Structure formats: C-alpha cells, structure tokens
Amino acid sequence: MTHPLKATCHCGAVELRVTLSEGLANAHRCDCSFCARRGAVAVSAPLGGLEVVRGAENLTRYTWGTQTAQHYFCKTCGIYTHHRRRSNPNEYGVNLACLEGYHPRDLGDIPWVDGVNHPADR
Predict the structure, then answer these.
(1) Cα–Cα distance between 120 and 122 in angstroms, integer?
(2) Nearest-CA neighbor of 100 among 28, 7, 3, 16?
C-alpha cells in the first residue's frame, strides 16, 4: 500500500493524504490510559507520509505527560485523526477508521500493544 490514501474526520472538515509504512500489517490498539479510552485502531505512516490537505486550522492537539505523543482531533466533530507517536516520534499513528474504504471490523482480531508499560514512563 504505497499509494496515498484519503483520510477524513466525520464531518469532512479535515482531510489527510496518508502513505502507510506497512499497509494494514501493523494495525493495532494500545492499552495506555489514553488510547484504551479512545479505542481507535492505529496504522503507521512515516512523518513525511502524512499531509493535511484541508482543515489544518480545524485540528486541535492534545498532549500530556512526556509531551512526546501529540494527538490530533477535529475541532468540529471531535474525531481523532492521527497522532505523532511517543513510541517512535519519527512516525504517525493514523486512525484506521478515517481511511476511505477501510473499516476496523474488516481486520478481525486486532492486536494490542503494551502502552501501560512504556519505557519512557520508567
């Protein structure tokens, strides 16, 4: 999946162009205190593989703790679109459900990663 994909929030105010690092092969959920509540399935894109096509002014950022992870949401509909990762600040996690033509249920059982015991928290 080396071609760019379209990703949008629910209301369409934010549109991204995303090129995934490994397609859907690394789709996962995280069990850290934030991600577990959000419940989104994330796929990976390199920093250069994500472009905000429309609605940059409509994105709001949430960060806490080490301030490394930066989570972006649409100000209008509240949908999480992507985040700069704490586990690898050189890539983004992208909300799979925002990618046009994809749905998390199509992947069956999706693995969880251990965000509770993150090395940066020790």
Answers:
(1) 6
(2) 7
* DSSP character at residue 56: G
The whole-number average pLDDT for the span 37-51 is 94
- Confidence band for 121, pLDDT divided at 50, 70 and 90: low
Q: Do strands 70-74 and 59-62 pair parallel, antiparallel, or not at all (unpaired)?
A: antiparallel
| Buried/exposed 89-105: b ≥16 CB within 10 Å, e otherwise | eebbbbbbbbbeebebe
Give me 74's structure tokens: 């649409």
Whole-model pTM? 0.90
Nearest alpha carbon to residue 23 among 76, 102, 89, 87: 102
